[in-house]
Write a sequence for this structure.
C-alpha cells in the first residue's frame, strides 16, 4: 500500500495592481476580506473665498483594517495641472469600520471653473482592495 505524503500549506505572495499602476505586495489568506465602498456623497462649502468640495466615502470593512485610500484624476477640463493628494491615511477605529464608517476627503477649488472625475479605492492591512468608485467634482460651475 503506498504511503500518503503529508500536506503542506503556505501563504503565497501576490501583487495587487491599483488604478495608478503602483504595485502593492500582499499575502493571500484563506479568509481575506476587502473593504466595500457603498457610496460617495459630495458636500460643498461655499462660505469661504473659493468653494471646498468634500467627497464623503461611505464604507465598511469586516476586518476593521482599512488604512489607505488611493485617488486618481481620470478626466478634467482644468486650465492648469491639478494638485491632488492621491494617497491618504484612514484613521477610523476597527469597530466603526465594521459597523460602517465615513472617510471625508477635501478638494479646494480655487478661482477656476472646471470639473475633475476621480477614481478611488481603499486598501486594508490584510491586502484587501475595495471596489473602485468614480465621482465627479464640479468647481465654480465647471
Amino acid at each position: 500500500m503506498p504511503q500518503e505524503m503529508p500536506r503542506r500549506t503556505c501563504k503565497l505572495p501576490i501583487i495587487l495592481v491599483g488604478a495608478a499602476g503602483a504595485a502593492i505586495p500582499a499575502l493571500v489568506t484563506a479568509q481575506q476580506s476587502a473593504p466595500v465602498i457603498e457610496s460617495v456623497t459630495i458636500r460643498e462649502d461655499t462660505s469661504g473665498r473659493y468653494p471646498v468640495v468634500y467627497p464623503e466615502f461611505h464604507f465598511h470593512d469586516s476586518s476593521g483594517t482599512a488604512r489607505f485610500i488611493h485617488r486618481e484624476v481620470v478626466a478634467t477640463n482644468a486650465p492648469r495641472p491639478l494638485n491632488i493628494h492621491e494617497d491618504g491615511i484612514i484613521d477610523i477605529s476597527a469597530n466603526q469600520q465594521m459597523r460602517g464608517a465615513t472617510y471625508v476627503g477635501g478638494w479646494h477649488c480655487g478661482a477656476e471653473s472646471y470639473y475633475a472625475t476621480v477614481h478611488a479605492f481603499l486598501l486594508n492591512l490584510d491586502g484587501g482592495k475595495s471596489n473602485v468608485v468614480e465621482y465627479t467634482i464640479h468647481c465654480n460651475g465647471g
Notes: The beta strands are 13-17, 23-27, 36-45, 52-60, 66-76, 87-89, 101-104, 107-108, 114-124, 133-139. Residues 32-139 form a domain with the Immunoglobulin-like fold (CATH 2.60.40.10). The two ends are 77 Å apart (CA to CA). Helices lie at 94-99.
